[in-house]
Amino acid sequence: MKRIKISFEVEIYPDVTALSEQERQLMESAVEAREKAYAPYSKFRVGASALLDNGQVVQGSNQENAAYPAGLCAERVAVFYAGANFPDQSIEMIAITAASNEIDVDKPAAPCGNCRQSLSEYEFKQKKPIVLLLMGEKGEVYKCASISDILPLGFNNSYLP
Ligand code: THU
């Protein structure tokens, strides 16, 4: 038997002002996207902004549905839009933020499992890490260097024939 340890580092910034100008702008774009969320059921609004390597920024927000599972998370709205409209551009970085009408989202919002898997598909395809910036409504920002950090031992098309 052998044992491996899988670990990763997260950089924690006290707020957006501590980020680089480009990162701050991307998170501000995600906040703007968050305000356009359609979340009448959960009242939990998520915004995601993806920076492409041509400098284009693509925004997404969660889109809910009366048939709950038909809704889609902000991150997938953003990266599927990027994939559909800019198929040859890689995704450099994605900023994600969440706020609620009912509770204080006082810690960084991390993508759900399905979104991690979807983001990981693009990271694997482009062979270049997608940097993540995560924030609650405001305050601390977590920066992770790659989707594979937050989805260790992930499944990808290298397993498929
Ligand atoms: N949500 C996202 O948009 N991203 C996530 O990674 C987690 C959850 C949305 C889905 C739903 O509209 C609401 O937040 C509550 O789960």
TrEMBL record:
<comment type="similarity">
    <text>Belongs to the cytidine and deoxycytidylate deaminase family.</text>
</comment>
<comment type="function">
    <text>This enzyme scavenges exogenous and endogenous cytidine and 2'-deoxycytidine for UMP synthesis.</text>
</comment>
<dbReference type="InterPro" id="IPR002125">
    <property type="entry name" value="CMP_dCMP_dom"/>
</dbReference>
<dbReference type="InterPro" id="IPR050202">
    <property type="entry name" value="Cyt/Deoxycyt_deaminase"/>
</dbReference>
<feature type="binding site">
    <location>
        <begin position="62"/>
        <end position="68"/>
    </location>
    <ligand>
        <name>substrate</name>
    </ligand>
</feature>
<feature type="binding site">
    <location>
        <position position="73"/>
    </location>
    <ligand>
        <name>Zn(2+)</name>
    </ligand>
</feature>
<keyword id="KW-0479">Metal-binding</keyword>
<dbReference type="GO" id="GO:0005829">
    <property type="term" value="C:cytosol"/>
</dbReference>
<feature type="binding site">
    <location>
        <position position="115"/>
    </location>
    <ligand>
        <name>Zn(2+)</name>
    </ligand>
</feature>
<feature type="binding site">
    <location>
        <position position="112"/>
    </location>
    <ligand>
        <name>Zn(2+)</name>
    </ligand>
</feature>
<protein>
    <recommendedName>
        <fullName>Cytidine deaminase</fullName>
        <ecNumber>3.5.4.5</ecNumber>
    </recommendedName>
</protein>
<keyword id="KW-0862">Zinc</keyword>
<keyword id="KW-0378">Hydrolase</keyword>
<feature type="active site" description="Proton donor">
    <location>
        <position position="75"/>
    </location>
</feature>
<dbReference type="GO" id="GO:0042802">
    <property type="term" value="F:identical protein binding"/>
</dbReference>
<dbReference type="Pfam" id="PF00383">
    <property type="entry name" value="dCMP_cyt_deam_1"/>
</dbReference>
<dbReference type="InterPro" id="IPR016192">
    <property type="entry name" value="APOBEC/CMP_deaminase_Zn-bd"/>
</dbReference>
<dbReference type="InterPro" id="IPR016193">
    <property type="entry name" value="Cytidine_deaminase-like"/>
</dbReference>
<feature type="domain" description="CMP/dCMP-type deaminase">
    <location>
        <begin position="21"/>
        <end position="149"/>
    </location>
</feature>
<dbReference type="GO" id="GO:0055086">
    <property type="term" value="P:nucleobase-containing small molecule metabolic process"/>
</dbReference>
<dbReference type="GO" id="GO:0072527">
    <property type="term" value="P:pyrimidine-containing compound metabolic process"/>
</dbReference>
<dbReference type="GO" id="GO:0008270">
    <property type="term" value="F:zinc ion binding"/>
</dbReference>
<dbReference type="GO" id="GO:0004126">
    <property type="term" value="F:cytidine deaminase activity"/>
</dbReference>
<dbReference type="InterPro" id="IPR006262">
    <property type="entry name" value="Cyt_deam_tetra"/>
</dbReference>
